[in-house]
Amino acid sequence: MSPSPLKKNLLITGEPACGKTTLIQSILPNLTCPNKTGFFTQEIRRQGKRLGFQTVGLRGHKALLAHVLIATDKRIGRYGIDIPSFEAFLEKERYDANQQSDLFVIDEIGKMECFSEDFITRTIQMLDSCKPVFGSIALGGHSFISKVRRRKDVQLIGLSTSNRQNLTTGLLKRVQFLISDRS
Question: Which of 25, 37, 44, 71 could form a disulfide with 52 if both were Cys (CB 3.0 to 4.6 A apart)?
Answer without folding.
Answer: 44
